[in-house]
Write a structure and sequence with these properties.
This protein is of the alpha/beta class. It folds into 3 domains: 31-127, Up-down Bundle (Monooxygenase); 132-244 and 433-472, ATPase, nucleotide binding domain (Nucleotidyltransferase, domain 5); 258-263 and 271-428, Alpha-Beta Complex (Actin, Chain A, domain 4), CATH 3.90.640. 45% of the residues lie in helices and 12% in strands. It has helices at 2-21, 41-48, 53-58, 64-70, 73-83, 89-100, 118-127, 168-183, 205-224, 235-242, 281-294, 302-312, 319-322, 344-350, 365-379, 403-414, 417-420, 434-443, 456-472, and strands at 132-135, 141-145, 153-155, 192-196, 230-234, 248-253, 258-264, 267-268, 275-277, 329-333, 337-341, 390-394, 424-426. Strands 6, 7, 8, 9, 12 and 13 form a 6-stranded mixed beta sheet that branches. The chain has a 5-stranded mixed beta sheet with strand order 3-2-1-4-5, sandwiched between helices. α11 (281-294) runs antiparallel to α14 and α15 (365-379) crosses α16. The longest helix is centred in the first third of the chain and has 20 residues, at 2-21. The chain is globular, with a radius of gyration of 27 Å. It starts with a helix and ends with a helix.
C-alpha cells in the first residue's frame, strides 16, 4: 500500500516539475492512471481514501483524467463523512447542502436542485467563516460558535435585560453586548445567526408591522455594533431544519406558551394560521411544585422542581392505565438530597393533553395540532398534502419522554383517515438546543453567509423603502 501511494506522489511531482519548466507547453491528456491502470477502479478509489483531503485535491493537477477521477462525488462524500465527528452530523450536512445551499427562498422541486460537486463543497466548507449563534429562547438564551460541537454558554433572554419601559433597542444592545463580552469576541469578527422569537402570530397588518419592526431593530443594533453580516430567522424554522425538514408543523413548547407553527419550504404559513396554547414549560413546573407541596415535600427553589421535571417526569401512552401502575422513582438534586415522585411523574406532562387538571380551560395540545392540520388541508396551498403531516417538537419541555408517541397516537384518533395516514411526530432532534443546532446547520453551509445573510449595505436601502411605504400608505 505504501509503495502504491509513493507512486501517486511521484506522478504528481513529475507533473508539477514539467509544468514549471515549460509553462507554454500543451498538457497531454492521458486516458489512464499510468502505473495504476491495472488496478480495479473501486480498489483505486479505496486507495485514495487513505490520503488527506488536501493531498487528494492536489492529484487533480496531474492531468484532466486524474482531475476527473479525484472529483468523484462518492470519494468526497466519504471524505466529508470522515470529517464529521458528531452523531447525526453527516445526515445534517447532506440535508443542508442539498436543500439549503441556495439560501432563502428555498428551492421547492428536485429539478431545481443544482448539481453538486462535493469536492468543491468540501473546500468551501473548510474556508467558511462560521458564525456566532445566539438562540434567544423564551426561557433562557443559548449561545456559541458554529464551529464548536455545541453551545458554550447560557444567559437570560433579552426580554429580561432592562425593564418594560426600556426601549427595545437599548435592551437588545445591552443583551448582545453582554453575550459578545462573555464569548470574548469582537462583534466585527464574524457574521451572526440570531433566532427571532415566535411572536405577533397573526397575519394582519398590525402583526406584520410589529414583526418588521422587531427585525429592523435587531439588524440596526447589530450593524451599529459593526457586525459584518446578519441572519435573523425564527426559532420554529430553525428547529425544523435541525430535524432535517423544510416543511412541517413545529410544536414549540416555550417558557410561557406553546405555539403550533405550519411551515412550507421554510416559510411560516401565517395565512393558514399559527395556533397558540397558553400552556408552557413554566406551567408544567408550577403544576409539579403544587403536587410536591401537597405531598409535604420540602425544597428550596423552583430550580429543584425543574430538575425533577426534567429527570423524572414523562408522558404516559395511556393515562388511565398508568394510574394503576407503581411509578415511583427517585432523583438526587445537588445540595438538596433525594426526592421520590410517583403519579406526579406522568401527571405533570398530562396537563398538556388535559389542561383542566391544572385548572385551565383551553384546548389540549393534540386538539390544537389537529386544528392546525385541518386548516392546512382546507387552505389547499399545494396538491401534496404530506407537507403538514410531519410534526416536529421543540423546546425544553418537549423533551419529556413519551410525548412524541402520545401526540402521534392522539392525532390519529382526532383527524380524518386521509390526513391520519402518514402522520409522524418527531421528538426534538437536539433536545432544548434544537433551534441552536438548526442555526449551526445554516452557518456551516459551504455557501454561507451568501444569500442567508444581510449586510449593512443591503439593510439601509431596505429600511428607507419600508419607511416610505409606511408614510404613504
Amino acid at each position: 500500500m505504501a509503495a502504491l501511494l509513493r507512486k501517486v506522489w511521484e506522478s504528481v511531482s513529475r507533473s508539477s516539475k514539467a509544468t514549471s519548466e515549460s509553462s507554454d507547453r500543451r498538457v497531454v491528456v492521458q486516458s489512464s492512471t499510468g502505473a495504476f491502470s491495472h488496478i480495479p477502479f473501486d480498489v483505486f478509489m479505496h486507495i485514495l481514501q487513505f490520503l488527506e483531503p488536501r493531498e487528494v485535491a492536489k492529484l487533480s493537477l496531474v492531468c484532466k483524467y486524474w482531475k476527473f477521477l479525484v472529483s468523484d462525488n462518492q470519494l468526497w462524500l466519504y471524505l466529508l463523512q470522515k470529517e464529521q465527528n458528531q452523531p447525526g452530523s453527516w445526515d445534517s450536512l447532506v440535508f443542508a447542502e442539498t436543500h439549503l445551499q441556495m439560501g432563502y427562498p428555498l428551492l421547492t422541486f428536485n429539478d431545481q436542485m443544482p448539481q453538486l460537486s462535493f469536492m468543491h463543497i468540501f473546500g468551501r466548507r473548510a474556508k467558511a467563516p462560521g458564525a456566532i449563534i445566539i438562540d434567544g429562547g423564551s426561557g433562557y438564551c443559548k449561545y456559541g460558535w458554529s464551529k464548536y460541537d455545541t453551545t458554550t454558554g447560557m444567559s437570560a433572554t433579552f426580554l429580561e435585560f432592562g425593564n418594560i419601559e426600556t426601549p427595545i433597542y437599548s435592551r437588545l444592545r445591552h443583551f448582545l453586548a453582554t453575550i459578545y463580552s462573555r464569548m470574548h469576541v469582537k462583534p466585527s469578527a464574524q457574521p451572526i445567526v440570531l433566532s427571532v422569537p415566535i411572536c405577533h402570530y397573526d397575519d394582519n397588518e398590525s402583526a406584520k408591522a410589529s414583526r418588521r419592526q422587531l427585525k429592523e431593530t435587531i439588524h440596526s443594533v447589530l450593524f451599529d455594533m459593526n457586525v459584518p453580516a446578519v441572519c435573523a430567522i425564527n426559532q420554529a424554522t430553525l428547529a425544523l431544519y435541525a430535524a432535517k425538514q423544510t416543511s412541517g408543523i413545529v410544536v414549540n413548547i416555550g417558557f410561557h406558551c406553546t405555539s403550533i407553527v405550519p411551515i412550507l419550504h421554510g416559510k411560516v404559513m401565517r395565512k393558514v394560521g399559527v395556533e397558540v396554547v397558553g400552556m408552557g414549560g413554566l406551567k408544567l413546573t408550577g403544576f409539579l411544585r403544587e403536587r410536591m407541596q401537597q405531598q409535604n415535600m420540602n425544597f428550596e427553589s423552583l430550580y429543584t422542581v425543574r430538575s425533577l421535571k426534567e429527570n423524572l417526569c414523562y408522558v404516559a401512552a395511556d393515562y388511565e392505565a398508568e394510574l394503576s401502575k407503581d411509578t415511583r422513582a427517585s432523583f438526587q438534586v445537588a445540595s438538596e438530597g433525594w426526592f421520590t415522585l410517583s403519579r406526579e411523574r406522568f401527571q405533570t406532562g398530562e396537563i398538556l393533553f388535559q389542561p383542566r387538571m391544572a385548572g385551565v380551560t383551553m384546548m389540549g395540545l393534540h386538539q390544537a395540532v389537529a386544528h392546525c392540520m385541518d386548516h392546512c388541508q382546507s387552505a389547499a396551498i399545494t396538491a401534496d398534502e404530506s407537507w403538514f403531516k410531519t410534526v416536529v417538537l421543540a423546546g425544553g419541555s418537549a423533551c419529556l419522554p413519551g410525548l412524541a408517541e402520545r401526540l402521534e397516537k392522539e392525532l390519529h384518533g382526532l383527524v380524518c383517515p386521509s390526513v391520519a395516514n402518514g402522520i409522524r411526530v418527531l421528538p426534538p432532534p437536539y433536545g432544548e438546543k434544537s433551534a441552536w443546532f438548526g442555526a449551526k446547520i445554516i452557518s456551516n453551509l459551504s455557501t454561507f453567509p451568501g444569500s442567508w445573510c444581510m449586510t449593512k449595505k443591503q439593510f439601509r436601502p431596505k429600511v428607507r423603502r419600508n419607511l416610505m411605504v409606511t408614510i404613504f400608505n
